[in-house]
Amino acid sequence: MTTRINAVPPVVPADDVGVAFADCDITAEAQAAALRVLRSGWVTTGREVAAFEAEFATAVGAESAVAVSSCTQGIELALRSLALPPGSLVLSSTMTFCGAVQAILHAGHQPVLVDVDPATGMPTPATVKLAVHAFGPPAALTVVHWAGDVADVPALADAAGLPLDRVVVDGAHALGTSAGGMPVGSGRGATCFSFYATKNLPLGEGGMVTTDDQARADWLRKARLHGMTADAWRRYLPGGSWRYNVAEAGLKANMTDIQAAMGREQLAHLPSWQRRRAQIAARYDDQLAGLHGIRLPHRPRPDAGTHAWHLYPIRVRLNGGIDRDEVIAGLSERAIGTSVHFIPVHRLAYFSQAALIPSMGLPGADTLFEQLLSLPIYPRLTDRQVDAVCSAIADIAYRGLSGKGTE
Predict the structure, then answer these.
(1) How does pLDDT run across 297-324, given as a tens digit for each residue?
(2) 3-state secondary structure the chain
(3) From 94, 227, 252, 273, which residue has the greatest number of CB atoms within 10 Å?
(4) Which of the following is catalytic: 199, 222, 252, 404?
(5) Cα distance between residue 104 and residue 77, in whole Å
(6) Which residues have a Cβ under 8 Å from the Cβ of 160 and sit 6 or more positions away?
(7) Exposed, middle or buried: residue 215 (CB in 10 Å: 0-12, 13-18, 19+)?
(8) What confidence tens digit (pLDDT) does each residue in 278-303 have?
(9) Handedness of CA 297, 302, 303, 305 (dihedral sign)
(10) How far is CA 237 from CA 42, 49, 234, 253, in A?
(11) CA 247 to CA 267: how far, in whole Å?
(12) Alpha-carbon Rg for the chain in angstroms
């Protein structure tokens, strides 16, 4: 049977500097805010952190937000706040960043890796039930809104036999995602966000934990600073007391006022940045749809929620022997950066021993991993650069298929 080869448009060259995979846009306003704090005489956790927490909580519809040093530390603190017995079973998708699983271990618990649907990159109630059947009832569950897509948190919690307050949502990709008509980040559980350099709200580093449980938020604020009952800002204010107590173990996981001041200014740009991400995704869709061997990213049904487009992960399934890595190499030769999100955790040497993995393996994640390719997507990406990426993919596919002939 002859393989049908799509017509390929003329190659659109990348800009002279190429197309970077990621871009960290620290706006002029954010730079000025950092300088203002540096000149203020107080640079660590203080009034800017408190203001950023309030503004971020409003942005995602949460009652409380607690600024932390990273999303990874946020996940660990959120798990610690549940006061689970040491060594408790905690479910996690295997298709996630390794830090999310390390957080389970650092919290003193046993990660159980869950397979994913190759179409979505996320666990399903069925894969959760398989993990529960293999290892027994879990004490908690972590859920990642992978790539900015919408995970069905209530359905996954139900499959695990857990109430929603035993779910820690990894929202590292999900600032701008909505689920069930509400922004990700609202609710009595805990949602952890990332402000890493590549994220939708980039600060370089930093994170936030949101919750509608005020008691949990109060605990998190103490735990992020060694468990101390009063932070340095409050102790050193005029009239403040040097006295404090430590009732339980905590971490050094606070955010600085420098980061928070930057975050407040970056947050003002988030709506326009999210609109641009959606425009870029639509432009990719228009040019890559129907291209032989390329499957577009999954996206939620309109009634299920809104994609944040933190990533634009395509699946490469070219016939004739061309694989994902050959496409990556071809794009690299054209000065176009790409990535893969993620190497499944069970394929990493440490976690193959430290985590529990069902005896039947995790075939959905293995299938997906071999095909995954994340394309550049960030607000300063130009239409010309998007066109160059799409043209290069089409050219690689065309040349590969025409060179390999028929099946």
Answers:
(1) 999 999 999 999 999 999 998 665 678 9
(2) CCCCCCCCCCCCCCCCCCECCCCCCCCHHHHHHHHHHHCCCCCCCCHHHHHHHHHHHHHHCCCEEEEECCHHHHHHHHHHCCCCCCCCEEEEECCCCHHHHHHHHHCCCEEEEECCECCCCECCHHHHHHHHHHHCCCCEEEEECHHHCCCCHHHHHHHHCCCHHHEEEECCCCCCCEECCEEECECCCEEEEECECCCCCCCECCEEEEECCHHHHHHHHHHCECCECCCHHHHHCCCCCCCCCECCCCCECCCCHHHHHHHHHHHHHHHHHHHHHHHHHHHHHHHHCCCCCEECCCCCCCCCEECCCCCEEEEECCCCCCCHHHHHHHHHHCCECCECCCCCHHHCHHHHHHCECCCCCCHHHHHHHCCEEEECCCCCCCHHHHHHHHHHHHHHHHHHHHHHCCC
(3) 94
(4) 199
(5) 10
(6) 91, 128, 132, 137, 138, 141
(7) exposed
(8) 999 999 999 999 898 899 999 999 99
(9) positive
(10) 11, 15, 5, 21
(11) 35
(12) 22
d(CA 292, CA 107): 45
Span 45-99, pLDDT tens digits: 999 999 999 999 999 999 999 999 999 999 999 999 999 999 999 999 999 999 9
What pLDDT, in 10s, does the model give residues 327-382? 999 999 999 999 999 999 999 999 999 999 999 999 999 999 999 999 999 999 99
Residue 207's identity, in one-letter code, is G
Residue 371 one-letter amino acid: Q
Do the Cβ atoms of 290 and 195 come closer than 8 Å? no
Query: Residue 97 and residue 330: Cα distance in Å, rounded?
Result: 26
pLDDT value of residue 55: 98
* 6: pLDDT strictly greater than 60: no
Nearest in space to 241 (alpha carbons), one of 252, 251, 230, 249:
230
**Residue length of the chain:** 407
Q: What's the one-letter identity of residue 271?
A: P
What tokens does 196 get?
């890493």
Q: Indicate the pTM of the whole model.
A: 0.94
Q: Write out pLDDT tens, residues 191-211.
A: 999 999 999 999 999 999 999
In the block, residue with structure tokens 């203002």: 36
Burial class (CB in 10 A: 0-12, 13-18, 19+), 142: buried
Asked about 199 being catalytic, the answer comes back as yes
